[in-house]
Amino acid sequence: MKQTYRRLPLALSVAAVSMIGLTAGAGADTLRLLTWGGYAPENVVAMFESETGHTVEVTLSNNEEMIAKLRATGGSGFDLAQPSQDRIAGPQAEFGIYKPIDLSKIVASQFIPSMLAATKGNTTVGGEVYGLPHIWGTSGLVLDTVKAGMVHDYTDLCLPELTGKVSYRLKRPTLIGFAFAMGMDPFAAYGDETAYKAIMDKVEAKLIACKPVVKTYWSGGDELLGLLRSGEVTAAMAWDTGGWKLNAENPDITFVAPKSGALGWIDTFALPAKGKADAAAYDWINFVMRPEIAAMITESAGNFTASKGADEFASADLKARYQASFPPAAVDNIKWYPPVPAGLEAIEGGVLDRVKAAK
Amino acid sequence: MRTELRLGFFLLLTPLVLWLSLLIIIPHIDMFLVSLRERIGVGKYQLSLANYLTFLEEPLYLWTFLRTALMSIMATLITLVIAFPVSFYIAKMVKGRLQAVLFLLCLVPFWVSELVRTFGWMILLRETGVISNFLQWAGLVSGPVEMLYNDVAIMIGLVYTSMLFMVVPLVTTLESLDDAVIEAGYDLGGSGPSILREIIIPHAMPGIVSGSIVVFMLSLGNYLTPRILGGKDSLWFTELIYSQFIVRFNWELGAAFGFMLLILSSVIVWGMLRLTGQTLEKTMG
Fold this sequence. Notes:
The structure holds two protein chains of two kinds. Chain A is α/β, with parallel strands linked by helices. In chain A, 45% of the residues lie in helices and 17% in strands. Chain A folds into two domains: 2-136 and 265-328, Periplasmic binding protein-like II (D-Maltodextrin-Binding Protein, domain 2, 3-Layer(aba) Sandwich), CATH 3.40.190; 138-263 and 333-357, 3-Layer(aba) Sandwich (D-Maltodextrin-Binding Protein, domain 2). In chain A, strands 7, 8, 9, 10, 11, 12, 14 and 15 form an eight-stranded mixed beta sheet that branches. In chain A, strands 2-1-3 form a three-stranded parallel beta sheet. The radius of gyration of chain A is 23 Å and the shape is globular. By secondary structure, chain B is mainly alpha-helical. Chain B has one domain: MetI-like fold (Orthogonal Bundle). In chain B, strands 1-2 form a two-stranded antiparallel sheet. The two termini of chain B are 30 Å apart. Chains A and B meet through helix 3, helix 4, strand 9 and helix 14 of A and helix 3 and helix 11 of B.
């Protein structure tokens, strides 16, 4: 008993010293990162923290929630966000939630030039650049190729023989995908609300007609993976990584690029308007874009990055799956999302609500 | 002495006033102001009633509200029908330790989060789930049965989630009923159903009413259960509000929906009280 008490002061002083050590560490910045699952894996965060002395706090989210969170606070609460590149210009013009990126602080040579140029172009508002590319991927079809081999495009998800075996999301990618599969070009109509509405009306009619085939509209990635894994669903519209993940468990299931083209997205780096740790944010961007670090993120997120040369470090398995899903022609056919003009969400919202409510 | 009393009164009242004004009244005023804005261009707004008109003109929104309200009322009735015998048993038929144990058993599911409880139902009801597999094993059905993703699943989830909020007020009011009154009813030649109708239910009315109001409001404002258990047509009104705020960035319409929900649900509760000849004072008193 006495022994324990004698040791107590020692323990306290050790604790005190380590506290001092901690505060000294925090003398660098705390980077509050608003990102997607898998984009800031623990091993990368640990390497970054030990190299730069910054601390990283990760909050996981999705496009809509990121914008809603930043809008609610006027762009404070986070130092770096990762929305998709098509969702930056609109909200920036409408709500002013980001600050321009100082391009002199990033190592531009680490980026794939074409992707950097495209993202800069899509995220420019009033002559300032608001986004840099980080991770890209596509959405398309995830199929059980044995049981749903007849599906080649989004509209095939309406085939009556698949009744009760189909699932997709009631979100904008579904509307866009169906529009392309029906032979229309919604991206070309982005600037023209009347034309866009006409396209969406047709898509609405199609989705309502297809409704009896659908088992359920999925809302979370894990929910969909569960449905496909158990075989309750054999054909779905989903992200490429989901398909590849399942392919590792069951070779029958994989991601298939639809005939009308997979839909390509790029998630970016964007600085929230009232972020407090810009230096740490730039450090993070330059750190994760190093090819070997980018490859580690690819391993965790399942998607490829805009980092030049990172492909060489990617695992052979993932590369093989990617090549099986994307023959060269399918890569050229990827439809990249252009920036969404403010106000289109209202049209799409009405369509989605009516589809969901239709009997 | 009087001033002291008044000071004490105000000091005691402060937390309540702060709570109400900071967390309920001020946000609602702000929401009301937002709901009166109409977006006319990028970052430009003007004062108008357009959002409320949208709610009234688009049949979808009204239907969704009606559907939500009717299903909530149904969930309330089912909860009441199931909870009443349970509460009566706990309050009147058993005594002492067993009573406490049974009451505790009603509480246990609420020690885990609503999400976990709802996932529990998913595991039971899904096509490859426990019940479907059991039915196949027992040879009662030939293929897998899907019991998830429909309105019945939502109803099960809602009733299960709100059971406790009906049982607690019912047990409390039923416990206060003197056994002698029931015995007297039998002595005077009453039958089981007539005693239930003439003595027990009138006595339990305050519990029934307060339990029903709580369950109705909880069901109407539930977001998780309809979303997870519900199927492809199961639009719930709170889902509409969420999607306006988060997915469509349309805070104006979302705020208007929120207000309509507040007003309409209050009207429904008031109407139900009038219809059943109850008043809030009687319930609370």
